[in-house]
Amino acid sequence: MTALQRVALWRSRSGGLTDPQFALAIVIGVLLFHVIIIIVPLAYSFWLSLHETNVILRSREYVGFDLWGEALFEEETQSATLKSLYFAAVSVVLSLVLSLGMALVLNQEFPGRGILRALILLPWAVSEVVTATMWTVMLEPSWGFFNGALQPLGIVGEGHVWLNKDWALFWLAVAFTWHIAPLGTFFFLAALQTIPQDLYNAARIDRAGVISRFYHVTLPHIRYAVLIVLVVVTVEAFRQFDLVFAMTSGGPGTTTQILPLLIFRYNFQFSQYGLASASSFILIIIATILAVAYFVLMTRRTKQTRVAAAQRRAAIAAESS
Amino acid sequence: MATVTLESITKTFGETLAVDDVSLHIEDGEFVVLLGPSGCGKTTTLNMIAGLERPTAGHISIGGERVEHVPPDKRDIAMVFQSIALYPHMTVYQNISFPLRMARTPKAEIDQRVRAAADLLRIGELLDRRPHQLSGGQRQRVALGRSVVRDPAVFLFDEPLSSLDAKLRVDMRVEVKKLHERLGATFVYVTHDQVEAMTMADRVAVMDEGNMLQLGAPDDIYTRPANLMVAGFLGNPGMNFLSGRLANGGSGLRFEGSGVALDLPAAAASAAGSGRAVTLGIRPESVEVGDGAADGATVHGSIFATEPVGSDLFLDVLFGDDAGTSDGARLFKVRARPDLKVRTGERIPLCLPHANLYLFDDAGHRIHPE
User: Fold this and answer.
1) Is the CB of A206 less than 8 angstroms away from the CB of B146?
2) pLDDT at residue B295 above 60?
């Protein structure tokens, strides 16, 4: 078969399209899907955020960016944003430590490792609502597991209320960490498995101790996994609704009313669709800033790699000449 | 500078016996190569010298001191790995200086020693690069630099050249040999490449399935292989083997089998008796085309294929019935002059000089020459 015949055969297989046409056909399909499920609702939401809606009068009035201003400077929204930041920060720190710790343990060889690796993913597979129910039961003051275990030891007083106004948000972050950390563990485990054993052996012979080996061999290899886990957990924490709603519904009072909960209340309890949409955009902007930061870090890396690859090719050329 | 002594070391991984009762004494400043096919236990042996693995039984001494329970960092050794194992995020300078930094050597001394090592290996202009910006040969030099800079008593090499291309491997071979001459340290070098072993080693230890089959100077193990395995492993192409039996013939002992029958040298008679099952061995370069030499046995075979490689012409010769009906029929490699004119299928006479014939008994041990 000549090259031309092969090309002809391949073309007939792809429905007579050229490469660019075929690529375009695929991209348009995906694009259309995205427009319908993402762009259209987003645009509608944006349009809503520019209008003050009154459900009783059944009126809708164009108010420009007034509601954005309200969302940004209203004390209630600001306080919810701060709570979201606190929730995200605690979740990120806890899950980073927990994920990495579990990944390091699961990367060791021991009997039953395979089963444990599968089991550890379970909390992530369990839905947020179930997680919330489980933690609510465990933290229950009169018959929960925490008080049952800690009261006899004298660590907490009788009927200690864990979800009190000072600590409820923290315990929500702990419950969320329990749910999300396994995902991070798997990112870290994947990264850890790419580290060649020879590097650890070389480091041992080069007189590096356990801490030096972690710092000089492990950490450089997993720093992109760290970045991914940071971004994923931060974004997940910012948009977390189910778990908080199921566990405290924002209470006691409004002490755990993080931004997604407030948006929910604006929208479904007060029917302030415009304000809810405007507040949503604050969330989107925070998430976008994080995503952009992530992309900037990744592209900077790609550029470095390209320069390095060019230098390496030059070195090989010089060597073989 | 130090000697390395292994006394009956054994290593098992679960049920698997990786190294079986190996003893070896390496002199101070000696270059010893552990040679064998993959899975023969040579790397495990090296790892035990390094301290990366602990022997199940036996003793290891470096410089006269027992080290089985001494961790790798306190053994005064350096190691170059098959995967090269440079720290990818560090520059060449940081890579080479790493063992010194870990030992908290003063900065000025580190700088002076790193530059000396870099000069020695001609990588002075690469000190600011990172490993992924280097070619394979350059990386290998950096890995050597990282071991040289420590000035260790013993250098350990685990197939360091196997990831390089053929041409570069030849260059680096010379370089490692020169390094050994300059440093005068003890080198233990693991490879499956018999050419590396032959060209670099003072002594070669041939290993297979966890056992040390033979230990000796390269020339010695080449000319006097202890058994079939060693004989077959060294040389390229490998030694020809014909299996058959010894029989009494007109002028003395004869070999019969594999489609040939030939007279054996008188000396072989003392080593083996008639009727014994043996393997006859001869290297491709020892066989002469023609029926000339007086002191040799002449056999006839037909040419199955020719392989010209420029400097030589290799002939694949078939003995016996070339249709393959005779069960002894097999290929026999012969190195001939490149200008020899032969056709496929042609019957040619071959002379097997008596001086270059080997006989192995049915357990594989060499019985001739003694």
Assistant:
1) yes
2) yes
Percent of chain A with pLDDT over 70: 89
- Domains of chain B by start residue, with CATH: 4-233 (3.40.50.300), 240-368 (2.40.50.140)
Per CB distance under 8 Å, which residues of A are interface residues toward B? 196, 198-199, 201-209, 212, 216-217, 220-221, 305, 308-309, 311-312, 315-316, 318-320
Report how far apart the first and last C-alpha atoms of chain A are (Å, whole number). Answer: 37
Backbone region of residue B258 per phi and psi (left: phi > 0; alpha: psi in -120 to 50; beta: other values)? left
**DSSP labels, A11-31:** HHHTTT--HHHHHHHHHHHHH
* Mean pLDDT calculated for residue range B151-170: 89
| In contact, B360 and B281? CB cutoff 8 Å | yes
pLDDT at residue B57 in the model: 92
B→A contacts (Cβ < 8 Å), by residue, are: 47, 50-52, 71-73, 77-79, 81-83, 85, 87-90, 98-99, 102-103, 129-130, 132-138, 146, 150, 167-168
Q: How much is the average pLDDT of B223-231?
A: 91
pLDDT for A162 beyond 70: yes
| C-alpha to C-alpha distances, A39 to A201, A283, A288, B267, B297, nearest whole angstrom | 52, 16, 15, 94, 90
The answer to whether A319 contacts B135, with C-beta atoms less than 8 Å apart, is yes
Question: Do residue B168 and residue A208 have CB atoms under 8 angstroms apart?
Answer: no
| Test mutation, B100, B127, B133, chain A, max A CBs within 10 A | B133
Residue B292 has pLDDT above 80, yes or no: no
A61 — pLDDT class (breaks 50, 70, 90): confident
Residue B288 CA to residue B299 CA, distance in Å, equals 11
CB contact under 8 A, B102 and A199: no
Q: Dihedral angle at the C-alpha atoms of A200, A205, A208, A211, nearest 10 degrees?
A: 40
What residues of chain A lie within 8 A of the CB of B53, using their CB?
none
**H helix runs in A158-272, sequence order:** 168-192, 197-205, 210-213, 219-238, 242-247, 259-264
Instruction: Share the mean pLDDT of chain A.
Output: 85
- Confidence at B326, pLDDT banded by 50, 70, 90: very low
- The domain locations on chain A are 75-320
Which residues of chain A have a CB within 8 Å of the CB of B98? 203, 206, 208, 216
CB B152 within 8 A of CB B73: no
Q: What is the CATH number of domain A75-320?
A: 1.10.3720.10
Instruction: With cut-offs at 50, 70 and 90, classify the pLDDT of residue A32.
Output: very high
Count of helix runs (H) and strand runs (E) in chain A: 16, 2
User: pLDDT, tens digit, for every residue of A240-270?
Assistant: 999 999 998 887 888 889 989 999 988 888 8
From chain A, the residues in CB contact with B103 under 8 A are 207
Q: Which pLDDT does position A296 carry in this prediction? A: 80
